User: Fold this.
Amino acid sequence: MERPEPELIRQSWREVSRSPLEHGTVLFARLFDLEPDLLPLFQYNCRQFSSPEDCLSSPEFLDHIRKVMLVIDAAVTNVEDLSSLEEYLASLGRKHRAVGVKLSSFSTVGESLLYMLEKCLGPAFTPAMRAAWSQLYGAVVQAMSRGWDGD
Assistant:
């Protein structure tokens, strides 16, 4: 029997992907709430942001949000064949390691992703959907984590 997960993922993402910047901002606002220590990692032209709000409204950071949403979009598109993204995700992991991101912070990103989906979809975000997204996100992080192995 076909597993319904890919359909649940696609169905829920359709709604979110209509306004990626808006929903991506919700994700990162939540992330900075949960892990304020991540804020200093985002510096552009050596300028430190004084607050999460300051960061979330900067053009450079909005660009980062767009990129993150595109990565999620790629994962959704390839949900049935994530191995095709493996090299790309490992190099993304290396880039994050290079700027001082700890692998452990990605579990907070995962919580923030689920929070954003719940905020966007409301009651339509079912436990089955949450489970499917947790599974997908876990696979993405596992691929990215190879960037910390120094393979």
